[in-house]
Design a protein that fits this description.
Elements: H1 2-25, E1 26-30, E2 45-49, E3 63-66, E4 75-81, E5 86-90, E6 93-96, E7 99-100, E8 113-117, E9 122-126, E10 135-139, E11 143-152, E12 158-159, H2 165-176, H3 178-183
Antiparallel strand pairs: 1-2, 2-11, 3-4, 3-11, 4-9, 5-6, 5-8, 6-7, 9-10, 11-12
Length: 184
Amino acid sequence: MRKVAREILITALLALVIFLAIRSVVHNFEVSGNSMVPNLQNGQFVIVSKAAYWFSDPERGDIVVFHRPGFGHGIIHRIVGLPGEKVEIRNGEVYVNDRKLPEPYIQGSHINRSAEIVPQNKYLIVGDNRYAASADIVARDDIVGKAWLSYWPLSEWGRAPNYSWKSVAMANATTLNPLALLLR
């Protein structure tokens, strides 16, 4: 009887250690509201990688969960402005250092925000649905992690719709310059 109790206790402790280890790396999150439509829907569940920024900084196009002080739960939006950049939002369109940011993933055009320099260690974050979203300056420390995988509903299963201008630039460079394909 003692041996069985000991095995149950060891198994329970091991399960707790594994659970805590996984929770320190990833976190599940339910999208609340319509601020990320058309890319994420109200009630959709995503897995957020807390480890995504352990060794690198957040990048423009990343969909992140962050905490807003005084707000009860996390918020999910997309990073559009990086530290030190001049950013302005006119009719829902983002301008970074006076150049319009190509955003094929947005919906709507009702947000405006005066030009400002994003402070060091902070990011300008806005939802994809520019009818229903807000634009916030968020401290690096308030970012929980990067949306990684959508898992519910099953019809939305797949990688989170993060967007990388680096990959777009590389694709454009290889399209314009076939030699770039050989040098990759």
